[in-house]
Each structure stands twice: as C-alpha cells, then as structure tokens.
Design goal:
Radius of gyration: 18 Å
Number of strands: 8
Keywords: Hydrolase
CATH class: Alpha Beta
Strand content: 15-25%
Order of helices and strands: HHEEEHEHHEHEHHEHEH
Protein name: Esterase
CATH superfamily: Alpha/Beta hydrolase fold, catalytic domain
Helix content: 25-40%
CATH topology: Rossmann fold
InterPro entries: AB_hydrolase_3, AB_hydrolase_fold, GDXG_lipolytic_enzyme
Domain Alpha/beta hydrolase fold-3: 73-276
Pfam families: Abhydrolase_3
Largest sheet: 8 strands, mixed
CATH architecture: 3-Layer(aba) Sandwich
Number of domains: 1
C-alpha cells in the first residue's frame, strides 16, 4: 500500500530510528538519546520541580507550573510500556504545560518487563489520588484534574479514567488521548495493514504488549478497548495518526464513547505516522503539539 505521507515528515523518515523491543533495556538507551535530540523547550515561564509521590513504591513525578495556572494534567509518557521516564518526556510535558497554561504532572511510572501490569496503571492511579487529596497544598483545583498521555501513556490514561469511575475515585475532568494504545488484539484494519509503518510496526506492538502483560490475561484496565461499559467517563479528546496501527482502535473507542453519552473531540491527522509529532520542524507536528495545549486549556477553563 502506498503511503501518502506529509512531505515534511517523509524527509525525516531516514533519520527516525526503528526500535526493536526484543531487548527493552537496550532500547531505553536509544529512546533517551532520541529524546535528548529534540530541541529544548522554553521553560522560562514554568516552575519545574521533581518530587517523589508517597506510594508503595514511591512514584517519581516532574511538576510543571505555569504562572496563573488553570487546571492540572496527570500526564503519562509513551514508550511501549517499556521505555521512557520524566526525563525523556521533558520536551513534551513542558511544551504542553506552556501551551495549555495547566499544571502538568509528568509521571515516571514503573516499566515492563521488570514491572509488568498492573505496576504502571497502579502508579498512575496513585499519582491521581495523591494530587486530588493534596490539592490544597499543591495549589491545584481538585475539580479541574485531567488525565492524558501519548501512545502507551494514552492507554494508561484511559485505563485510569475507567478505574476512577469504577472505584468512585477522584473525579477526572477530561481525558487527553494522543494515539493511545488501547487494544492488544491487533485485529482492526489499520493494525492488520500498517505492519511496517515508520516507528511503529506490528512486531514492535506485539513485543510491547507481551512485555507489559506477561502471563496476565488482558483486562479493561490493561487494554481499555476491552471495556464493555464506557458510560460515565470524562469527556475526551482523541488524536490519531493516519499511518498508525493504533488508528482504528482509537477511532472505534472514540465512537463508542460518543455512543455511551460521552462528549468527544476526534482529530485524525492526515499524512502522519505514530510518534511523528516528535519531528518538530514539520508544520503539522507543530500544529499537533499546539492543539494538545489548546484543547487542554479549553477543557480546563470551562
């Protein structure tokens, strides 16, 4: 199948590394190098603080505080459940904080395969409950807390929203889901057809879910697409990339949210591929990052 990629993105494909998740520990080094190559964000108008959230075990977070912040985002990084931390996510968390005017709490959740499901979602939920319980001392509004993430982090954010609803946990005001990984079954049209697209391949997704789930059968808290009831969830923004294996599972999830009475904004970005928003020189990538910030600002100031 011919891929009609955005011309600016296509020019960078040869420079975009192809990760092999057979050895996640090795790939973490390459992932960190890729993140380090991204132009540094402007943090002159942000207060940035690293702290440990009390939990068992403690969860590292990096907090970005814009001046006169409106609302808070619990942000979960991508990396196939096996790569990434608050340092590799710094270029994106800082940009979202600056663009949205929201406090962004970037979560350094535990990684698979050393810490398979449910370690990562437990860490995400621990940070959510901590932020809600300590809202006054953190200087945030407990009624204006959103969850969000990219790729695997988007799936973790969706799972966090499901758990908060089911356990009558903290009220989540909004979900910001960017190309989320929601379904380990890989049965959609895009998952079957886009087996070797830039950055994301079928083998890579299979390895990612294998490392994450281990021997545990998938549940809605691991793969949110498996949830049979989506009623009562927070409003959502769902962004998809045209040449992304996750595309159709994300669109289907957005439609199911709508059919369950949940307000959704869905944006399918033509000519893009999974993670291509990291190619900041491209105009479409700049638009994607700006839109994440604008959508969050609008959601948290309603």
């Amino acid at each position: 199948m011919e891929h009609k990629l955005d011309p600016e993105l296509e020019a960078f494909i040869s420079l975009f590394p192809r990760a092999d998740l057979t050895d996640p520990v090795k790939e973490r080094v390459n992932f960190a190098a890729l993140a380090a190559s991204v132009p540094a964000p402007d943090i002159s108008n942000l207060d940035v603080e690293d702290i440990m959230v009390p939990a068992d075990p403690q969860v590292p977070v990096r907090i970005y505080r814009p001046r006169e912040a409106q609302g808070t985002l619990i942000w979960l990084h991508g990396g196939g459940f096996v790569m990434g931390d608050v340092e590799t996510e710094h270029p994106w968390a800082a940009r979202i904080a600056a663009a949205s005017g929201a406090v962004v709490i970037s979560v350094g959740y535990r990684l698979a395969p050393e810490n398979p499901f449910p370690a990562a979602p437990d860490d995400a939920y621990a940070v959510l409950t901590w932020a809600a319980r300590h809202a006054a001392e953190l200087g945030i509004d407990p009624d204006r807390i959103a969850v969000g993430g990219h790729s695997a982090g988007g799936g973790l954010a969706a799972a966090t929203a499901l758990r908060a609803r089911d356990e009558q946990g903290p009220r989540i005001h909004f979900q910001l889901l960017n190309q989320p990984g929601l379904d380990e079954r890989q049965e959609t049209w895009s998952a079957r057809e886009f087996t070797d697209t830039p950055w994301m391949t079928r083998d890579k997704i299979t390895a990612s879910w294998h490392h994450y789930l281990g021997s545990t059968p998938a549940s809605p808290y691991a793969a949110p697409a498996r949830a049979t009831d989506l009623t009562g969830l927070p409003p959502a923004y769902v962004a998809t990339a045209e040449y992304c294996p996750n595309r159709d599972e994300d669109i289907t999830y957005a439609l199911r949210l709508l059919q369950s009475g949940v307000s959704v904004e869905l944006h399918q970005w033509p000519g893009t591929f999974h993670g291509s928003q990291a190619i900041l020189p491209a105009e479409v990538s700049q638009r994607q990052i700006a839109e994440l910030g604008a959508v969050l600002r609008r959601a948290l100031t309603k």
